Amino acid sequence: MVDESPYLTETPLPDNQFALMERGAATLILTAIILLLGAMAGQEIAPGNALSETYDTYFIEPHTIDSTSGDAGYNPVDTLAYSLLLVSFVVVISGWLRRIGIPARDNSIIALLPWVFWASIGEVNEDGYLFSEGLGGLFVSPLIHFHVATWVILTGWMCHRVSIRAGSENRAAITQLAFILTCLQIVIFMPDIGRHWEKDAISLLTSPLFLAPMGGLLLIVIIHPFLECYTAIEQGLIQVGLGGCFMHLSGWLMLYTEPLNGRTPISMVPMALIVLGPLLLCTLLWFTGQEARSKLHHMGLEPGIIPEGISLDDWDCQHSSTWERMEALSPRAVLGLPVILLAMYGQMVDGLATSVGLENYGYGEKHVLSQKVIDVAGTAWGFGVLKFGLAAMIWWLFAYARFEHRHRHLRLLVILCLLVVGLAPGLRDVLRMTLDV
To answer: What does the CA dihedral 196, 199, 201, 202 come to, rounded to 10 degrees?
Structure first.
């Protein structure tokens, strides 16, 4: 219950209305699309013009090199452009989800987590040159993000349609759809993955090329009874994402057990420490935050989320008991939120994996800002320290930043964004180092 306060002077915008920030972000995206179309058209109409040359030099050439001959790295122009567009898409999509009435639930992030693994393993398979030139380009950053988004949107939309037709209680229909969509992924990607190893019928049935995809399909059926707490869309995303992960995992397992091109896979021990060390730390932090989170939940409050009907400006003027409890408990309570810890975990894994890869396995850094940090520190471990600092900053952000009730989707998408730029590249680095690719 929110206390009555004389400081309530304004009413937050209704959910169906876009804020100035959201309209500005949409304008930026539209401008980028117009410039992209202009650059592409200019290549045909007026070759050599400044816009088309900039597009080719800073965007097309790095992507082409990355997909054909290895990591090309980023440059200041595409780094700035991708960063601005990423933030803009987060803002616009959050407003769109709010406007159409999609619930803002932490479970939504959990449902999307398999797709982070899907992208990471797929990129590793591309690094191992398992895909043909056409499919391989779909697993190179930044195109990989649009590729994954296409599968997520397709899965979510089809699950929504099936749920309407079959009834929200008929979850078996969602599982059947997930089975079909996973089979579609197998049909599309497995021919490219499997063509590198010649197997007769008997050896194929005992190899990861068969066992991993079939294990994914079996898992879809096994986990069906445990997904009742999720919406139909979330259930489908989890099942299709996990099924696809196992399909991609077949390529990684084959590269590890039967390496190509003279590669020698390394011990899994260093990689396990990179993954499990931060996981242990985050588990301890989770126990630390449970009591405070429980107290806020008992009051009907979420850590960092302002009660409905109060604007951010009015909240800053509050001195009610609700305000006092929120401000006192939120810093510790956010540690009890798995989605916050996932974002922190991703940064830690990325920092450790990058540092180990640069120092011990001869990898290079693609990102401009990351390389600047390494140059200033004089060692790759400086980047690892920075990433652990970023994990602490994520805690600080969600501990002390306050989101209006209407901005719950924005908060979740910020977390998802942090997973995409932290956990995904971290897992990719870990998996590719095990293969020495």
So the answer is: -130
